[in-house]
Amino acid sequence: MLQKLNNLRLPIDFEMSDLQSIVKKKIGDYKFVKIDKLSLDSRKKNDIHYVASVVVDGKPNHNLIDYKKPKVSVQELVDCKVKVTSRPVIVGSGPSGMFAGLVLAYYGLKPIIFEGGESVDKRSKIVTKFNLGGELDETTNIQFGEGGAGTFSDGKLNTGISSEFISVVLNEFVRHGATQDILYLSKPHIGTDILKKVVKNIRNTIESLGGEYKFNSKVDEFVINNGRVVGVKACGVTYDCDNVILACGHSARDTIRKLHLQGVAMSAKAFAVGARVEHNQQLIDKGQYGGAKGLPPADYKLSHRLNNGNGCFTFCMCPGGYVMPSMSEKNTIVTNGMSEYKRDSGFANSAVLVGITPDDYGKGVFDGIVLQESLEKKAFEFGKNYAAPAVRVEDFVCGRVSKDLANYKTTYSRGLINADFQRIFDKDILDGMREGIVAFGRKINGFDKNGILIGVESRSSSPVRIERDESGMSNIKGLYPCGEGAGYAGGITSSAVDGIKTALKLVQNNKQN
């Protein structure tokens, strides 16, 4: 019988044999099966250790917790026959689009996945060329292309949602090339370098099951007749379809605006804006670990309730990472963070964001997008040629403009330029970031006195939600809004889970009796 043993304390240099010995000493002659969860407890700097939960096999023990084996593959979810009159279409190949595609492919529905950007291999070359000083490609960049924005973010898989499908997502990632440790680490990450290969392998699986990818094929029109989607147009060709999963990502602004004009119901939602802070990784390690050695690059997740009631928080923290030029439109500046699997850049970065609601920025459906666009254009005006506006953290806290940043050591590849952030953000955002950073300095010593703040971070989530009902459809029948771009997810795992759930809704709505 499989059972779970929790709260096993392990030294930071433990080996598997140590763990097995601890299990045997604790409960006797049980067969060790696997690690179920492993987390690092660094709350006390003089007593840092790992805490593990493990699965064991043997006679029932009333002191242990029964272990229910989770679902581990998309294929396990296939439980009925489905009949559709045309091949379903998926718009977008990010996490939600990929996993929706896997589900539909295993059901034998042979989905067609339209992606406005390039395949991941070609995309990587285009992104690298831009990072080295080339021109921005507005169709293929860090936001657009196979794998979505998450492909160039770090592959962080920790999530705040609870779902039976999380285990499916993690196991499919492993099946397609991710390392086994994502199955049990409390803060799993794949790494951008590995995630590129995983994305390609998922595509190969979908194609092997009859699915089809169309790259450089932006859907520029949705054909709607009597309140139902009946087709899509891409590259001048119309494709008949009565089931469309919309997984276009949070940066597909023109697509979202076009859908609104066609009567698709949507509303403004809360989101967050700010800048990306970059520190030396050693400062973060010391703040989190003290003097302990032999540990992975330290991360953090910080938040502070502001005096005005809003929140300031860190987001998408990348240990040993890079600050990436992440614009998708010319003459704008957008930042994001990325780490490879080894997290060995020597720098740590994270977004420092202030939450805002429609009451803060205007209640029109697209007022949030208009704010994003305004911030991104203002940021570009300082340096032209995609140098990012920046200020030393200590100067920012004191309300000063920094000097001589041109040669400041940073991972942002297009260069930094001195900037007065008052020319980008309004007072509430600036005050919120300052208050938050000072509060974070009380949690990690030196956070508010070292490092650089690089603007702008404007695309942490979508400012628009495309409405959907219990059937998973929008007010336009057959159109299934999905993932981060539709306002229902906030990261790789939650987007992938929403892709699975949305595809299963489509299946249930077309279930054969």
How is the topology of this model organized?
Elements: E1 2-10, H1 16-27, E2 31-41, E3 49-57, E4 65-66, E5 89-91, H2 95-106, E6 112-114, H3 120-131, H4 166-175, H5 192-208, E7 212-214, E8 219-225, E9 228-234, E10 237-240, E11 244-246, H6 253-261, E12 266-268, E13 271-280, H7 281-289, E14 303-305, E15 311-318, E16 322-325, E17 335-338, E18 347-356, H8 358-361, H9 367-381, E19 388-392, H10 393-398, E20 416-418, H11 427-441, E21 452-457, E22 464-466, E23 479-481, H12 492-509
Parallel strand pairs: 5-6, 5-11, 6-7, 11-23, 19-20
Antiparallel strand pairs: 1-3, 1-4, 2-3, 8-9, 9-10, 12-22, 13-18, 13-21, 14-15, 15-18, 16-17, 19-21
Helix pairs in contact: 2-5, 2-12
Can you walk through the features of this model?
This protein has 513 residues and is an alpha+beta fold. The protein is 27% helix and 24% strand. It has a 7-stranded mixed sheet. The protein has a 5-stranded parallel sheet with strand order 7-6-5-11-23, covered by helices on one side. Strand 14 and strand 15 (311-318) form a beta hairpin. Helix 2 runs parallel beside helix 12 (492-509). The longest helix has 18 residues, at 492-509. The chain is globular and about 65 Å long. It starts with a strand and ends with a helix. The model has no long low-confidence stretch (mean pLDDT 95).
